[in-house]
Amino acid sequence: MERTTIDLWFGAFVAAGFAALLVLALKVGNLGAERAAKTYNVEVRFDNIGGLKVRGPVRASGVLVGRVADIHFDNQRFQASVKLAMDARYEFPKDSGAAILTSGLLGETYVGIEAGGDEKKLAEGDRIQITQSAVVLEKLIGQFLFSKAQEDAPASAPAGASAKK
Amino acid sequence: MRWTWASRPRRRPRVFRKLRRPLERLGHNFIEGIWGIGVMARFFGLVLASSGTSFSRFRLVMREVYFTGVLSLIIIIVSGLFIGMVLGLQGYQTLQRYGATESIGVLVALSLVRELGPVVSAILFAARAGSAITAEIGLMKTTEQLTAMDMMAVSPMARVVAPRFWAGVISMPILALLFSAMGVFGGYLVGVVLIGVDNGAFWSQMQAAVDFRYDVLNGVVKAFVFGIAVSVIATFQGYDAPPTAEGVSRATTRTVVTSALVILALDLVLTAFMLRDDG
Questions:
Q1: Residue B23: inside a domain, yes or no?
Q2: Which of B59, B175, B215 is facing A29, going by the closest CB pair?
């Protein structure tokens, strides 16, 4: 085998490897436009974050507007403190609300932002005051069963009991 | 008669005599195995110590990359394509039941990038290139070319073994990346072109699920480690082969078998290290 031919093949081989890495990074992976965007950090406190994960999405009207940057437990208030890295292209009023939502019944957990009516905008380091915790399915079912049982109880009791109510 | 230690039966029961041979062989094999690991570790150190030439005369490595890497391209690309297509078809069958056929891209990409890409291409590489390296070095030893080099004050370690080792280490990640990329393309062909999953959902769900650092780069790290393992095993088996036709053939077989087992075992260890708990 001629030297130059081997050089050519070696070059093509390495180039193909880099091309594959590039394809996997940009087309398959998430190294696309996401990294470049500038962000500002906003803090939110929740009673319960459910299944929220770091790097989980933050959505407003279903559009991705940021990522969850950090989650930790606030030991003074006994609440979860979540730091959101919001995309700088999107601004929200200061009195916007944040809720822990789930896409679909089994889908991923995300932070939903509900825009408020304030003139001032959220800025770096602000805290979103109006929050809504994750819906715990077990609690919900428990409440449902409880109310169902309460409904049924008077019906089986003597007629006077239900009339009193 | 009272049983005393002195009056114990002198002949051991037959079971013991029958068991002795297999037990001896088992112990022998075990000690041989441990000894082999030690020798291989020393060999690995020796290869690293004598790789200076490989980098000062990089053309040696390039020539070996051509023989091990470039000539493995066809089998890697074709198998990657087929495995991606099979994953697409099989994944579709199951995902269809839950109405989540768009996730087919996620399934194909994650299983390829994390596991199948590095592992399958490493096993193919061991079979395609590792066996060739073993046979080549083994035959060089059998025909006393290595001894001849030694006589001419050319270190066979530096001239023959180290370039082949580094060629394997360089080729393996590239081959694994190509395998994964071709597999994703195969999944795309089956999922989007053949079955008709939505093109946008296919790619966007994939991009949302595959993380560059945790999935793609960890796959490259795996492939790199497998490359080192396969190259050490292949060169060692060749260097260690008894200088007979049978010895070389056995060493070639052993390269493929040992490599496959070591790859799978290493994969388990690496996966356990790389898994993260925050999903």
A1: no
A2: B215
